[in-house]
Fold this sequence. Notes:
Elements (H helix, E strand, L loop, with lengths): L1 E6 L6 H8 L5 E3 L10 H14 L4 E3 L6 H13 L3 E8 L2 H9 L9 H10 L11 E8 L2 E6 L7 E2 L2 E2 L1
Parallel strand pairs: 1-3, 1-4, 2-3, 4-5
Antiparallel strand pairs: 5-6, 7-8
Helix pairs in contact: 2-3, 4-5
Amino acid sequence: xxxxxxxxxxxxxxxxxxxxxxxxxxxxxxxxxxxxxxxxxxxxxxxxxxxxxxxxxxxxxxxxxxxxxxxxxxxxxxxxxxxxxxxxxxxxxxxxxxxxxxxxxxxxxxxxxxxxxxxxxxxxxxxxxxxxxxxxxxxxxxxxxxxxxxxxxxxxxxxxx
Length: 161
């Protein structure tokens, strides 16, 4: 069983990546699908648990900018014995804003929200409970995906901070 967790600001290509790589194999869970729902996080965790109990692999397609925002999804995945794969979407802010500007209706988010989420963005780390991490970059050729091994939180290239 597998839970794929997307991490990145709006406009980074997360949902397009889902459609291209996972739509035929994984259940798609996104808070964006319930714009008027209350308790979205609770609902997400409940639907994730139900999908895993039914034996379905899942993609959780939300921004997950912080370790705290990812913790609940990882906890549900681990409780169900699922392998947890993280995809960190690296994207230039101006490109995200440009892609967002082309969205229609509720798909478009306020630019301010993109700035706020970009400022909050904490790169994921294996120590959070991921089994493997990938970085994703949207290029003119499409998506480039590579294994990603970030430094531990609080470390720099020279060792501990």
